[in-house]
Amino acid sequence: MMQFTDWDILRNLLLAARWTVLLSLIAFAGGAIVGLLLTFMRISRRSALVVMTRIYTEIFQGTPLLMQLFLAFFGLGLVGIDVSPWTAAALALTLFSSAFLSDIWRGCVESLPKGQWEASRCLGLNYLQTMRYIILPQALRVAIPPTVGFSVQIVKGTALASIIGFVELTKAGTMLNNATFQPFKVFAMVALIYFLLCYPLSRASQYLEHKLSRSSK
Amino acid sequence: MSLVSIHEVHKYYGDLHVLKGINLNIEAGEVVSIIGRSGSGKSTLLRCMNGLEKYDDGTIILDGKEVSTDEFQIRRLSESVGMVFQNFNLFPHLTVGQNIMLAPTLIRGMSKPAAKELALDMLGKVGLADKFGQYPEKLSGGQQQRVAIARSLAMQPKVLLCDEITSALDPELVGEVLKVLEQLASEGMTLILVTHEMNFARDVGDRVVFMHQGKVWETGPAKDVFAAPQTAELQQFIGAVL
């Protein structure tokens, strides 16, 4: 039987962590694109669009991410679409993030005082001009800290993709544990790597929140 | 024809009847102060005049255009009417100059240099030409409100609506804003103000409209209304505020 040194364990975990990072980036980028679309639908004042996006958000916020992963992986398989764990994980995490991001961003748009809309209206700006020149530039500023903060949730959420057989950090940890029978050491390393990924993000979020709220005073 | 004609206007908030058949004509060049207790419907009436608030019955014609909350109609109205708010509502992410230049460039299609000249001109009018590049947050409340007035004036409205524009200001800053209004009045601008500044209403205003319980209770030339109020309610109100 092959012997694993500590360095072997760490090296394999770090290699697997690449996939955690890549999956997080895909989920964040995809979630941002879909989320942006949803945000615009949500603030469009067209009731059909608003209801649709609200249902969408409720579904993805009201069910465990794990179930969403299962449904993406096994559900699509059932209807004859063969999906790899990669595709299923990327898809489920994208939809999951989009629901949360659009909710965060909608909140940012709605947090702006009504007077900004009224002043724009009185000056003769139409809806799109008000959005483009008045609302979005201000909402963007408010939105950055919570958006960066949510990216931590995405990184941690990728751990669940291990269950459908996607080999990322957590899955690699499980496999290494099966080979070494040193669960504490292996999972401590896994946790440490997650922490090293997430900590800079949450620090950045705090920093941005502090900085942006100070400069708006 | 009057610049503003309000005929039998009614408005409800649910079951609450807030405007009960308002009739009012305002001529070009008039300075009209709308006074009354809070809840008398004065701000609502003002907001109905430029389509920010919808009314349920009657008609309001402003500069020959019927007022409605329809998006297209509001844009047409904004050519004739400007509004200044209690809370200034400046755009905090834009400089003073950008606040003023935005609408002339976007709506009137004015070139940047022309809009800048216009903005400086308007800022000069309110005595703040040196604040062109500042952000609103760096300005005092009185200065912010003067910028808001300059922003409205840059669209060359025929009538300026002022909704309690000194109520959010520290007492020592009220004077500088009223001075700007006084100057506008002397230049012939039509002003319709909802105000608690009774001295201003009496000394600068041409006419006073006293609203009570959703109705125009009493109206007349400013000096007469204050010197000899006809109704018991107005006598009581003036007694309480002066």
UniProtKB/TrEMBL annotation, chain A:
Keywords: Cell membrane, Membrane, Transmembrane, Transmembrane helix, Transport
Main location: membrane
CDD domains for this protein: TM_PBP2
Bilayer disposition of the protein: Multi-pass membrane protein
Record-annotated membrane-spanning stretches: 20-41, 62-81, 87-105, 184-202
Gene Ontology CC annotation, any one: ATP-binding cassette (ABC) transporter complex
Presence of keyword Transport: yes
Record InterPro entries: AA_ABC_transptr_permease_3TM, ArtM/GltK/GlnP/TcyL/YhdX-like, MetI-like, MetI-like_sf
Highest taxon of the lineage: Bacteria
Gene3D superfamilies in the cross-refs: MetI-like
Domain ABC transmembrane type-1: 17-205
GO molecular function: transmembrane transporter activity
Protein location: Cell inner membrane; Cell membrane
Keyword Transport annotated: yes
Record-level GO BP terms: amino acid transport
Family: Belongs to the binding-protein-dependent transport system permease family. HisMQ subfamily.
Protein name: Amino acid ABC transporter permease
Organism: Proteobacteria bacterium 228
TrEMBL record, chain B:
GO MF annotation, one: ATP binding
Organism classification: Bacteria, Pseudomonadati, Pseudomonadota, Gammaproteobacteria, Oceanospirillales
CDD domains the record matches: ABC_HisP_GlnQ
Protein family: Belongs to the ABC transporter superfamily.
InterPro entries the record matches: AAA+_ATPase, ABC_ATPase_HisP-typ, ABC_transporter-like_ATP-bd, ABC_transporter-like_CS, MetN_ABC_transporter-like, P-loop_NTPase
Protein's UniProt keywords contain Nucleotide-binding: yes
Pfam families: ABC_tran
UniProt entry tagged with the keyword Cell membrane: yes
Membrane topology type: Peripheral membrane protein
The protein's name: Amino acid ABC transporter ATP-binding protein
Organism: Pokkaliibacter plantistimulans
Record's keyword terms, sorted: Amino-acid transport, ATP-binding, Cell membrane, Membrane, Nucleotide-binding, Transport
Chief localisation class: membrane
UniProt-annotated location(s): Cell inner membrane
Domain ABC transporter: 4-238
